[in-house]
Structure formats: structure tokens, C-alpha cells
Q: What sequence folds into this?
């Protein structure tokens, strides 16, 4: 597994910024017209299922879903091909009250020619989320 693949590097930078609570650093990784689909399709987090396109919409996603919580990534496998990487693992979100949500999934990142994230797509099933009380 090469850590030098551009999409893998972008995914690692993305996860590190989220874990550090670095909103501006995270947003700076995205191309202007990038899309974030987390999860893909309709869910309570995105009822229309269209994802969030462009930095303003991605910033709103960060501010409402990511930023208020502590997020940790446990990646167990990573597969790079072309301009994309698919990371397999668990994301643990700890809410302000101390409760947690654990999401198993596949998280893909596609980069543009400049190494910026053009698409972040998260394959996980909302109904399969594991919740732990505080």
C-alpha cells in the first residue's frame, strides 16, 4: 500500500483535518465544484440524497454535521486506482453529550489534476449505525 498515491494522500489529509477540528484546513482540500455525499443517497442527514456540491454547501455540512462533534477514523484497508481511493473502516462520532455513533463503510475520494478532492462519497447504511450511550 503506497502512501504516495494522490487520492490516498488527500484522504489522509482530510481525515487528519477532521480529527483535528481544522475546518479551514479541511475545506481547503476541496476543489471549488467538489461534491460530498455522506452517505450516498437519501438519509436523515441529506433527505434529498443529492449530496453537497461546492465549497459553501460543503462548509455547511462541516458546520452542522462534522464540526460540533469529535470524529475519529479507523481505516482497516485502502485501495487506490486511477485518481481515486476507497478506504474501508469505521468512523466513530462522539457527540457533545458523550454518546457515540459508529459507522462501518467504504469511503471514496476522487482527486482532480491538482490533487484537490473532487468527490468524497461515503458508502454506509444509516439504519446500520451503531449507537453507544454516554
A:
Amino acid at each position: 500500500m503506497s502512501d504516495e498515491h494522490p487520492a490516498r494522500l488527500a484522504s489522509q489529509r482530510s481525515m487528519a483535518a477532521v480529527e483535528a477540528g481544522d475546518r479551514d484546513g479541511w475545506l481547503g482540500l476541496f476543489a471549488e465544484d467538489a461534491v460530498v455525499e455522506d452517505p450516498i443517497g437519501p438519509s436523515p442527514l441529506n433527505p434529498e440524497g443529492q449530496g453537497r456540491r461546492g465549497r459553501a454547501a460543503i462548509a455547511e455540512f462541516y458546520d452542522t454535521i462534522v464540526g460540533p462533534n469529535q470524529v475519529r477514523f479507523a481505516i482497516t484497508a485502502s485501495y487506490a486506482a486511477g485518481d481515486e481511493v476507497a478506504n474501508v473502516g469505521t468512523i466513530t462520532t462522539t457527540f457533545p453529550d458523550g454518546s457515540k455513533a459508529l459507522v462501518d463503510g467504504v469511503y471514496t475520494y476522487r482527486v482532480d489534476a491538482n490533487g484537490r478532492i473532487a468527490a468524497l462519497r461515503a458508502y454506509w447504511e444509516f439504519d446500520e449505525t451503531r449507537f453507544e450511550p454516554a
In short: The longest helix spans residues 6-20. Strands lie at 30-37, 52-53, 70-81, 84-94, 100-111, 117-123, 130-132.
